[in-house]
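Q: I have 88 residues here and want to know how they pack in 3D. Can you give me a structure?
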Amino acid sequence: MNRIEFLINEVAQSKIDFESGFQAILYEPNFDFQAVFMLLENYIFNSIPDKVSYKTETYQNAINSIPLKSTFAPVVILKNYSTKKRIC
């Protein structure tokens, strides 16, 4: 587990608060936005309790607990589009 994965894990377990973890990740010397985004996408998709539907109460509650504005693009995407991976 690298430092960024460790920090994400610490935030997810509420061992450090979101803002502190967010800042620590942004200022990591090896920060790569695309790599972190893909890592978070993978974590989110694999943590969905019911992978059949993104409209379940559990999933919606999880999305609503994200400490970001509800108008922030990633939150809007998660609220409005299926999280099922599509094979093109």
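Q: Anything worth noting?
A: The longest helix spans residues 33-47. The chain has a mean pLDDT of 80.
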